[in-house]
Write a structure and sequence with these properties.
The structure is a homodimer.
Chain A lengths: L11 H21 L8 H10 L5 E2 H8 L3 H13 L3 E5 L7 E5 L1 H22 L4 H17 L2
Antiparallel strand pairs in A: 1-3, 2-3
Chain A binds a DNA duplex (23 and 23 nucleotides) through helix 4.
Chain lengths: ~150, ~150
Amino acid sequence: MITASNAAKQDFLPVLRELVRAYQAFASFDANGYQGTGLTVPQADVLFTLGNTAGLSFKEIGESTLITKGTLTGVIDRLEDKSLVKRRVSNEDRRVTKVVLTKKGMRLFEEVFPRQISYIKKRFDLLSKAELAAIKKSLHRLHTIFS
Amino acid sequence: MITASNAAKQDFLPVLRELVRAYQAFASFDANGYQGTGLTVPQADVLFTLGNTAGLSFKEIGESTLITKGTLTGVIDRLEDKSLVKRRVSNEDRRVTKVVLTKKGMRLFEEVFPRQISYIKKRFDLLSKAELAAIKKSLHRLHTIFS
DNA sequence: TATTGTTATACTCTATAACTATA
DNA sequence: TATAGTTATAGAGTATAACAATA
C-alpha cells in the first residue's frame, strides 16, 4: 500500500470552512471600522488606493482593487458625488482619465486610513512574531494553489 | 529597551494583503465551479446547506450561511422560482417556515456538490499533510483574533 | 411581548457586452 | 485595430425598519 504524502481524502473540508470563516470574520470587522465614514468597502478601497498618489487611471485603480472597469465607473461616480475625488483627462493620452483625491478626499483619507490601520493592528498585535510569520506563509501558500 | 514579543510595528500589512488576495483567489476559483449550474454563490451556499437535511428554517439557514433574513427571503424566492426548493409552514410552530429541497433541487445538489468538492480538492491535493495542517492552524488563529 | 418571516425602501455592487473617443 | 472609459442591461445582495401572524 502506498502512503499518500499529500493531503488526506476529505481533510480539506474543515480547512475550507476555516478559510471562509476567517475571512468573513475579518471582512465584517473591517467593515465595522468604516461606520460613520459614509464609505462602503469598495469606496474605502479606492480611497486608500488613491491616498499618497498624484492620481491614478481607472486601469490602475482596477488592477489594484480588482474592481472591473464597468463597476469602477459607478464607484468613482459615487465618490465624485460626495466631492471626494475628481476626474482629470490626461494630457499625454486623452483616452485616459486620472482620478485624483480632492482636498476633502485627502482629509478623509488622512483621518480614516491611519485609524483603520490601527484598529486592525490591535488585533494583529495579539499574535506573536512567529504566529504572524506562520500565518503569512500559510496565506501565501493558499494563494498560490488557487492562482 | 524592551524587545517586543508581539508582531512588529507594520509587519501585519503584507499579511493583510495576503489574506485578501488568498481569499479572493479562492472565491473566484470557487465561483468558476458554478458555471453552467445557473446558481449564484449564495444560492449554491443555501443548496449545499439544505442538502442531506429534512429541511431547515430561515433562521437555521441564516445562521449557517451568514445571510441575513431580509436577504434570505430573496435568495429563497429565486431558488423557489427555479423549483429547486419549496416552503413548508411548520406544524409545531406556525411562525416557522421550513425550506426543503424539491426532487429537482436534490438532483442538482447531488450533481453539483460532489463535483464542486472534487474541483476544489484538486487544489488542496497540491499541499502536503504538514502544509495543510499548518494552514488550518493559521486560519483558525486568524479567525480567533477577529471574533 | 417576543419571535419568525415578509415587505418596502433605497442603494450598491456584480458581470457582460456594446459603444464612443482616442491612439 | 486596439485601448480606456462609459453606458446599458439585468440581476443580486446589502442594511434597515415597519409589519403581520403566531407564540
